[in-house]
Amino acid sequence: MPAVSPRARILAICSAPVLALLAVAVFAPLPFSVAEPGSTVNVLGSHQGGPVISISKAKPRKTTGQLRMTTIVATGPDATVRLKDVIGGWFDTDRAVMPRDSVYPVGNTTKEIEAHNVKEMRESQNSATSAALGYLHRSPREVGVKLSLADVGGPSAGLLFSLGIVDKLDGDGRGGDLTGGRTIAGTGTITADGKVGAVGGVPLKTQAARRDGATVFLVPKEECSDAKAELPKGLRLIPVTTLKGAVKALVALKSGGTVPHC
């Protein structure tokens, strides 16, 4: 057997820790979540056997077209994400690798996070109702609104809830549908006074929207660049900052007027 040179011996000794670190990197869990396009729900229709938006103390309009809220699906806080998952997610346009803290900023267990998301959804629904009735100058004493979307958590459906309420009560304000018969999707939080906020995961939500037939996507203006990065063919982006602006843009889209763009 030939003698091992001092240089080879040194290289072998130095490479051992590097190989050990690589082995740890390959097999150790990493603080990331892998997300992909989730379901979409038409807030003007039904979900799990009941209407998403129920109106009482006022007669709702019959609507055509769809307003689809969008979601993403991410690996849970207890899931093990390894290096191969992260690398795969970086090169797959149907998936995204996100820091776990950005997906689950509150709570350490699935149960805690589910409770937090339910709370955020309830608050979002209240804000969406206040924003829509405020825009229409209607009082909660005159109109009752119930929103039901039990299996979806978080605040990102706020804008679409508000638009759905407006469409069911007032349409485009001229006797027609706010959607113009189109399938329109979108995302965005909303405050009680009608301001639209960013949500995250927009490139995946545009894919979910196009998959489910949408041709128009309402996006918080500050997330335009994210939405354009991997925009599916055939999907038109409309940036919004307020509920009033979103309604105005949809009316303009229907009538052939000037529509904002990213």
From TrEMBL:
Any transmembrane segments, and where? none
Q: What is this protein called?
A: Lon proteolytic domain-containing protein
Give a Pfam family name. Lon_C
Q: Which organism is it from?
A: Streptomyces sparsogenes DSM 40356
Q: Which GO terms describe its molecular function?
A: ATP-dependent peptidase activity; serine-type endopeptidase activity
Lineage, top-rank taxon, reads: Bacteria
The organism that produces this protein has a lineage beginning with:
Bacteria, Bacillati, Actinomycetota, Actinomycetes, Kitasatosporales
Biological process (GO), any one: proteolysis
What region holds the Lon proteolytic domain?
154-244
The UniProt entry, under SUPFAM superfamilies, shows: Ribosomal protein S5 domain 2-like
